[in-house]
Amino acid sequence: MKILWLGSSQSVDGYLPEEQRAPGLVGKRLSELLQTDVEVSVRYIWPNDRLPSLLETWIDEYRPDMVNFGVAAYWCCYESVPLKIQRRFGRVGSPAANAGSKVADTGWLSSNRLYYAAKSLALATIGGETNFEPEEVVDRTKECIKIILDREGTALLLMSMHGLDPHYTLGRRRPWAEARRQFVDRELLAFCSDLPVLYQGLDQEADYYYDASLRLGDRMHLTPAGQVASVRDVVPRLLEAWTQRHPEVEVADTQDASPLAHGAAPLD
């Protein structure tokens, strides 16, 4: 079985070794449950106008049997001060915007409490902007769903905008961010209702999304234990998506879909 995993930096960046990240752990567990070799190809996605053509290329290249598509709250709920500066002042503001983005991408700096205090102050005084509007996220995701389902027999798990992290915006603006998240969820739920898609909506959010102890110092990326928690959540859903699309498939015992089941080595 081939799985195309379309996700965020949680899945592709070097915050953790590859063997401790969810895609690889999911592949191992599914190979046990489905009693077949499972190959997981991971690609970072960004919902700009290039994504549909990129997805078509990946579908042709990997020919996946199943796709796990993660719709990130970060796309339209995270308010970025550097992005606002860049959009308002163009080339003049680019040096300041680039410097701000570089700080955010530097692990030890973005794990510093002073960084978050400064970020909150900047949001309160300068303000921020999101990378995309909710309507853009919905339209782009719909395009991608159609591309995936055009390949006959491909199973699709669509994961909604789980995890509205507190640092995405100021506390007083959280209702605004939540409204955007709810809008995307409603639109995608309605769109998928008559399609062969397993949609994990906001009403199915797992507790681990909001457990700060499962986050690294940057408050965004999951610890090894957090990755394991995400695997426990996603494996049963992938199995459900697969068996819905292929009801003839027999699945081994799924009572414990954890990667630590059946003697698997624990993570250090």
Shape: globular
Q: Can you list the strand order of the major beta sheet?
A: 2-1-3-4-5
What is the CATH superfamily label of the largest domain? SGNH hydrolase
What is the CATH topology descriptor of the largest domain?
Rossmann fold
Mean pLDDT: 85
- What's the architecture of the largest domain in CATH terms? 3-Layer(aba) Sandwich
Domain module count: 2
Encode the helix/strand succession as letters.
EHHEHEHHHHHEHEH
Taking all Cα atoms into account, the compactness measure Rg is 19 Å
How helix-rich are the residues, as a percent range?
40-55%
Largest sheet: 5 strands, parallel
Task: Please tell me about this protein's structure.
By secondary structure, the chain is α/β, with parallel strands linked by helices. It folds into two domains: 2-77 and 133-263, SGNH hydrolase (Rossmann fold, 3-Layer(aba) Sandwich), CATH 3.40.50; 80-129. The chain has ten helices and five strands; from the N terminus they run βααβαβαααααβαβα. Strands 2-1-3-4-5 form a five-stranded parallel sheet, with helices on both faces. The longest helix has 24 residues, at 81-104. The radius of gyration is 19 Å and the shape is globular. The two termini are 28 Å apart. Residues 92-110 and 257-268 have low confidence and may be disordered.
What is the compact description of this entry?
By secondary structure, the chain is an alpha/beta fold.
